[in-house]
Amino acid sequence: MSRLSRGTALGAVGVMALVPAGMANAATKTVDMGVPVSAQKQIGEKLGGDVNDYFPHAITIHAGDSVKFAPVAFHTVEFPKRGAGATTLFAPIGQKVTENDPAGAPYWFSGLDAINFSPVFGKSSFGKKFTYTGKIGINTGVPTGSRQKPMTVKFPKAGSFTYFCNVHPGMKGTVRVVAKPRTIPTAKQDKKTVAAQVRRSINEVTALGKTTAPAGTVVVGPAGPHGSEVFSFVPAATTVPVGTTLTYAMPTRSWDIHTASFGPDNPETPTPTGYLGTLVASLNTPVIDQAVVYPSDPPPGPTSVTQTSHGVGFWNTGIMDTSSRTTLPSSGSVTFAQPGTYNLYCLIHPFMHQVVTVTG
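^ thats the sequence. predicted structure below, dont judge the formating
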């Protein structure tokens, strides 16, 4: 019995006998909130894409076990209150917009409801532990740092529980909870499941890199099944005659949010000082600049744009998504009324860039 005396060993057995079986055998599995770190370089840096999904997408545990949700990317986890849906990313803040464009004229959306991030996302639950029964909702909040600890959720009863990412409409995962006698996948089997999901994601993102756009359309963030996406405008550069109308459209399978925005500056520079840079910077302030959220011109368009639109050559689709749970548009159209070079960016992902050359 090694260095333990026989009496000590029997005492330990006696203590363990007093521990309920469910507690003694409770286990914890881990779900990555986004692409596992080991695959991020391949999918993100090499392929220019991402996958808005949880890894593994579905996980099975015993009743009484827990799941750790590890923040490896910019996603949230929400288990809604029973009977409720996922919280939308944006919500009215109880104020009206009062905003002028750079030329000093009121924007068309002045007087409409000001929109901002839903308050629930400012309350972090990372590093905390919860028990989920459906009586109350649970939300991680938005990850704001690189060293945040996982949120741990215990599931005391059997059932199938769906959870959601509030940042990316359509992204969801499942925790399947079964009774103790039932067999569940081992850690090794779960690891194989994640590896297969990663391989599938790499193949999907690789294929999206070959996306082509229909005539007159620019694809904003080519997207495929299972949350796969490439961060680009397709085509990345185009030359069109003056008077051409282009429609900037989100793919129907996209689970992301984007804008398509022309302006006089590059918002991706380290210290952007122009109008687009100001708009991008507002995403990290208590209240987003409403010129990010709303289209720059009254929908449905198309809107004629010149080098001096709104005083600085500004045009914006507003924030777009494909979710039926929001009122955000999924596309926007613009007519190029003046020759020149137009640089377009996504204000949400300013590294997405397109150049439109308009000839006379």
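The chain is about 15% helix and 30% strand.
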